[in-house]
Design brief:
Two copies of one chain form a homodimer. Chain A has 463 residues and is an alpha/beta fold. The first copy, chain A, folds into three domains: 130 residues, MgtE N-terminal domain-like (MgtE N-terminal fold); 120 residues, CBS-domain, CATH 3.10.580; 175 residues, SLC41 divalent cation transporters, integral membrane domain (Tetracycline Repressor, domain 2, Orthogonal Bundle), CATH 1.10.357. Chain A is built from 23 helices and seven strands. In chain A, strands 1-2-3-4 form a four-stranded mixed sheet. In chain A, strands 5-6-7 form a three-stranded mixed sheet. In chain A, helix 13 links the parallel strand 1 and strand 2. In chain A, helix 2 packs across helix 4, helix 7 packs across helix 9 and helix 15 crosses helix 16. At the A-B interface, helix 4, helix 13, strand 5, helix 15 and helix 16 of A face helix 4, helix 13, strand 5, helix 15 and helix 16 of B.
C-alpha cells in the first residue's frame, strides 16, 4: 500500500510484542510519545496490543492518552471488549472518552455496560449529549435508531445560501468529523422537509433560500426500521445516508450506509458463530473462562441429550448389533456422512434466504430441489460404502444394508437440511442456531434405524 | 419505512408470484409498463422474480426492457446468476446492458463468462470502454483493481476553480451517477498529485488553481492491494474512497468504501458456505443439478474416506465391542459431542483471526486457552454421560470408561479445533474449508480409540 503520508509505519509495524512498548510508554513516556506510537500501529495491532494487557495495564494505557486518542483506540476493539475496558476506568475518564465517540458508538457501548455504570458515565456528560445518548441506547444495535448518528449538517428551510456558507466557515472545526456531502433541511417545527446536496450550492446565487433548492419529500425511515429494511433501502438507492424521523416527522439523525454494512457483516459473522454452537454469537478468548465454558456448555448440554435420544435407537437394536458386530463399524460413517450432506443443504438454504431468492413458504420447491441432489449423491455414496462393506467382511448383504441405508438417509438429511431453515424462519426462530442440532439428531436416528432395521429384516443373510 | 416518493409500492409488493406479472408484461405490455412494474418491486423480489423464470422467459424480460433498467435489474442478482443470464442474451443486447453497469461490476461479470462470450461482448463496446473493462477484468474480484471504478471527478492541476465549475455545469448529466464529493487531481502526465474535497470550492475565489487548493500527497493504493489491505485502510481512515495508481503513480480509478464492504460481506458468507462443505463458496438452487451434485459430492467423497479411516479404529477393536455391545451405543455420542466441542473452538479461532486478536504463530497461547475450557466442559460432559451409561446397564465401569473417554476426547477436540485454523492460516491454506473434516476425522479416531482402548484394558470388569 502506498502511503506517502506515513513513511515510518513500515518500521514500527515490525514490533513482535507491541503491547510491551505501549505499556512502557504509558508508564515512562509522555502521552505524546504513546499516542504517536499507537497511531503508527495498524488498527488490528492496536486491538491486539490492548487486549494483551491485563486490566491494570489497560487502565494505565487508556488513562495516559488524551480522550480523543483513547476513543480512537478502543473503537478498533470488538464492542464487547471496548465496553469491558470502559468499565475499568474511573467514571470521569470513561465519560471523557465516550464524549469523543460518534453518537451511535456511544449508544452501543453504553448499552453493553451495566445500568449503574452507564448511568454514572451519562451523569458526567453535558446534559444535551447525555439525553441524546440515553435515547439512542434505548434502541437495539440493529435497528435504525441504534445505527443513527446525530452528527450531520442540519439547516432551517428559511436560510439562504449565504447563511449556510457563513455557518460552514464559522463552524468548520465542528464539522470536521461529519459527512458534509448532504445537508438536511427542517421547517420551524424541526420536521424534515428536504435534503440538499451540498455541491449544488456551487451553482446558485447566494441569496437563494434553501426551500427553493432542496430536494423535497426525501426518503426517510423511522427509528424502529429493521436492519433488513435498511439493507434493502441502501441496495435500491445509491445514497450515502438516510435520515431518521420520529412519528411526527421530526428529524432525529441519519444512518450512514457504512453503519448498515457494518451491522450486516457483524450479523453474518454472528450467524456463523451461532451455527457452530457459540451461544450469543460472540466469544473472544479474553472473556472470562467461566463465562466461555458456561456458554459453550449450554449448547453442548442440549446436544448431549439429543445424542442420547439417537443412541436409544442403537440400544433398541442391541441384539442385531450383537449378532452382526460389523454393523457397529458403519454406524458412525452413516451418521457423519448424513450430517455432512444435511449441512450442505442447510448452508444453501441460509444463503438463498439471505439473498431473498427463496421465500420461507416455498418448502415444497426446496424439498424437491434437494431430493434431486440427494438421489444422485445418495446413490454415489451408497455404492461407495457398500463396496467398502463387502471388502470388509466379504458378505454382499452387509453391503446392501449399509448402501441402502446411506442412500435413504442422504435423502432424509438433505430434505431436513433444506427445509428446516425455511420452517424455522417462517415461525420466527433463528435458522442459524437451531438447524444444526435438529438436523443431526433426526438424521442420526433415521440413519441408525435404517441400518439396524434393515439388518434385522435380513438377519439370516448377514450372520 | 416511510417512503413518500413511492406510495404504490405497498400494493404491488403483495404479488405472490411477481415473475408471472413480469413475464406477462414482457410478452404483452410496453417496455414502460414492464419497467414501471419492476421498479415497484423490492430488489429482493426483483432477484426472486427473475430467477424463477426459465431461460427463454428470462431472455424475453431482459430484451423487453431498456438497457439501463435491465442493468439495474441484473445488478440485484448474485454475480454468478447475473453472468449466466448475460450469457443467454444475444451479444448486442448483452453489450448494451454491460455498458450501463459501473466499471467494477462490468469487470466482475465479464470475468464470470467464458473467454469467448466475454470477448464477443467486449467487441461490441466502444473501444475505450472495452479496453478499460479488459484491464479491470484481469484483476481478481477481491483486489483493489477488481473493486475499483473509473467513474470519478478527475481534473488537471492547472485548472482553476472557474474551469471546474464550468465543467460541472456542462457535464452535470454525465456526473449524475458518480460520487462528486471528492475530485482527484492529476498532473500533465496523469500522475495523481492531489485530492480535492469539492465543498471546499464553496469558500474560495474562482480564479484559484486546483494545485493551490488540493490536499497534496494523498493516500493511494496499487491495483494489486488485497482486500485485507483495503479493509485495514478504510478502518483506519474515514474516507469514502481511495484512489488506485499504477507503478508510475498514474491514476487508474477509485475504490469506494462500499465496494470493500460488499466484498468483505461476500467473503464472510463464502467462508460460511465453504465451512459447511459447499465447494467454491457459492451454490444457488437455480444452478444446474449436475454441477450442484458434483460439487457437493467432491466434498462428501473426501469425508467418506476420512470416515472410513476412523471406522477402521472400531474394526480393530471388534472383539471388545462384541464382548460389551453396550459400548456401540456410546460411540456415536462420543464422536458427535467431540465434534460439537471442536467446532466451537474452530469458530472462536476463526473469529479471533478475522479480528486480528490472535496471530497465526500463537498456537501455544490458543491451545492453553482452549484446554482450560476443555477441562471444565469435558468434566461436565464426562460425568453426565457416565451417569447415563450406569443407568443404561447398571455397570459402574461402563460409566467410568465412557466418562473418561469423553473427558479426554473433549480436550483433544478443543485443542485441535483451536489450533488447526491457526496452523492452516500460517501455511497459506483456507482455514474455513479444511478445519472441519480434519477435526472430525482426528477426533473420531481418538474418541473411538479412548472408548475401545479403555474398555479393552478393563474388559474383565465390563463383562
Amino acid at each position: 500500500m502506498t502511503s506517502p503520508q506515513d513513511p515510518s509505519s513500515g518500521a514500527t509495524q515490525l514490533d513482535e510484542r507491541p503491547w510491551e512498548e505501549m505499556l512502557r510508554l504509558a508508564q515512562e513516556g509522555t502521552h505524546v510519545q504513546l499516542e504517536e506510537y499507537v497511531s503508527h500501529l495498524s488498527s488490528a495491532d492496536q486491538a491486539l496490543a490492548l487486549s494483551r494487557l491485563d486490566e491494570d495495564e489497560e487502565t494505565q494505557v487508556l488513562e495516559a492518552m488524551n480522550a480523543a486518542d483513547a476513543a480512537e483506540l478502543i473503537s478498533h476493539l470488538p464492542e464487547i471488549e471496548a465496553a469491558r475496558m470502559l468499565a475499568l476506568l474511573d467514571t470521569s475518564t470513561a465519560a471523557a472518552i465516550v464524549q469523543e465517540l460518534p453518537s451511535d458508538e456511544q449508544a452501543d457501548l453504553l448499552g453493553d455496560l451495566s445500568d449503574e455504570q452507564a448511568e454514572a458515565i451519562l451523569e458526567e456528560l453535558p446534559q444535551e449529549e447525555a439525553a441524546a445518548a440515553r435515547e439512542l441506547s434505548s434502541y437495539e444495535d440493529d435497528e435504525a435508531g441504534g445505527m443513527m448518528v446525530r452528527e450531520m449538517l442540519r439547516f432551517n428551510d428559511s436560510m439562504s445560501v449565504r447563511d449556510v456558507i457563513q455557518d460552514l466557515s464559522e463552524h468548520g472545526e465542528d464539522y470536521s468529523d461529519i459527512d458534509v456531502r448532504y445537508a438536511y433541511v427542517c421547517d420551524a417545527q424541526d420536521r424534515l422537509v428536504g435534503v440538499l446536496p451540498m455541491q449544488n450550492l456551487l451553482f446558485v446565487k447566494r441569496a437563494e433560500r434553501l426551500s427553493d433548492l432542496m430536494i423535497r419529500d426525501p426518503l426517510s425511515v423511522q427509528a424502529t426500521a429493521s436492519l433488513d429494511d435498511l439493507i434493502e433501502l441502501f441496495d435500491a438507492h445509491n445514497y450515502l445516508a438516510v435520515p431518521v424521523v420520529d412519528e411526527q416527522g421530526k428529524l432525529q439523525g441519519i444512518v450512514h450506509r457504512e453503519a448498515v454494512q457494518y451491522e450486516e457483516t457483524r450479523a453474518a459473522e454472528s450467524d456463523y458463530l451461532k451455527s457452530q454452537g457459540i451461544v450469543g454469537g460472540e466469544e473472544l478468548r479474553t472473556m472470562p473462562l467461566w463465562l466461555r465454558a458456561r456458554r459453550r456448555l449450554s449448547w453442548l448440554s442440549i446436544n448431549v441429550f439429543l445424542n442420547i435420544g439417537a443412541a436409544a435407537v442403537i440400544a433398541y437394536f442391541q441384539d442385531t448389533l450383537q449378532a452382526v458386530i460389523a454393523l457397529a463399524v458403519f454406524l458412525p460413517i452413516i451418521s457423519d456422512m448424513s450430517g455432512c450432506s444435511g449441512n450442505q443443504a442447510v448452508a444453501v438454504s441460509m444463503r438463498e434466504l439471505s439473498l431473498g431468492l427463496v421465500r420461507p413458504t416455498e418448502m415444497l420447491r426446496v424439498w424437491w430441489q434437494e431430493v434431486s441432489v440427494g438421489l444422485i449423491n445418495g446413490s454415489a455414496l451408497g455404492v461407495l460404502v457398500a463396496i467398502v462393506a463387502v471388502m470388509f467382511n466379504g458378505n454382499p448383504y452387509l453391503g446392501i444394508v449399509v448402501g441402502i441405508a446411506l442412500f435413504a438417509n442422504t435423502i432424509v438429511a438433505v430434505s431436513i437440511g433444506g427445509v428446516v431453515p425455511l420452517l424455522l424462519k417462517r415461525f420466527g426462530f433463528d435458522p442459524a442456531v437451531a438447524s444444526g442440532p435438529l438436523l443431526t439428531t433426526v438424521t442420526d436416528m433415521c440413519g441408525f434405524f435404517f441400518v439396524l432395521g434393515l439388518a434385522t429384516m435380513m438377519l439370516s443373510k448377514l450372520i
